[in-house]
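README: folding subset

This subset contains proteins for which both the sequence and a predicted structure token string are available. Records are stored as plain text. Below is the entry for Phosphoribosylformylglycinamidine cyclo-ligase (360 residues), shown exactly as it appears on disk.
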Amino acid sequence: MTDTRHPIGSGATYEGSGVSIAAGEAAVDLMKPFTSRTRRPEVVGGIGGFASLFRLPLHRYREPLLASSTDGVGTKCAIAQAMDVHNTIGIDLVAMVVDDLVASGAEPLFLQDYIATGKLDPQRIAAIVSGIADGCVLAGCALVGGETAEHPGLMAPDDYDLAATGVGVVEADEVLGPDRVRAGDVVLGMGSSGLHSNGYSMVRHVLLDIARLRLDGHVEEFGRTLGEELLEPCRIYALDCLALMRETDVHAYAHITGGGLANNLARVIPDGLTAALDRRAWSPLPVFGYIASHGRVARDEMEKAFNMGIGMVAVLPQEDVDRAMAMLTARHVWSVVLGTVENSGDRSERVTLCGDHPRF
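--- output ---
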């Protein structure tokens, strides 16, 4: 009987199955200059170890709580892949994580990313990580490591998905949330840079599938191509929110992501109170009207999927509003009073919206 087995050393290889160790090592080398830009003094060592080390300076705190958040970018990645532009999507990833952290009052300390791809292209991975590093610089946190995974057969060669986990710290008696919110508080909205990183399944369905628009087509309302508008990175509010906390008596923040303004703000409104908002206070950016008109999307549906131009909300006392708005203006963040917190009376909703947006 003939032995048809391959002799040792002449058979299948890991690279033959679609996974390249050499490409992974090359990607790590390309990442190092980007991660070094995000370094904080508390970081111990560099990337490349089995775990990342961060020295928490306990002497600075009375009763520190660690806050953690995990999120991803979602199907906005499909736009980046179609445009072959990969150096901004990492900013979106950081924003989704750190602005959830700061909503509790926590200062973002460090972040770890996870990149899964069908075929590891070191240059593309480095471009993604450069954006993650840019986001970490904007948020004041360190990029201490992560994981790049090659998934041949599970993902197409050019496909990738991103996720990250961030850790922050907040004093136990300074945690923000619904227990601090009072009747008479003002709801202050901070302008978004556009769609941010939510609702892209609807965006792609309406603009690319139904309207059959081209990503490289120029759009007069935007002054740039459709793809460039859709890839506009999220605004990162973390440092702005921390600055407001130092100078004003912020009671709560709400990061406006999936579910829109009403659903996210409702998470910080306690029982017995309602945030009464007026749509006439602001005009959504042109991209929202563009999506609504091309897909004949009802207002309620738009407000469920998108931030409608408000990316972060602060709830604070009336006497601090002027100071807060002046601070945000100085930091180049547009802000507007959206409404007030009231006793709910016979209303069951934690958030109500009245009026119609101007020019929408």
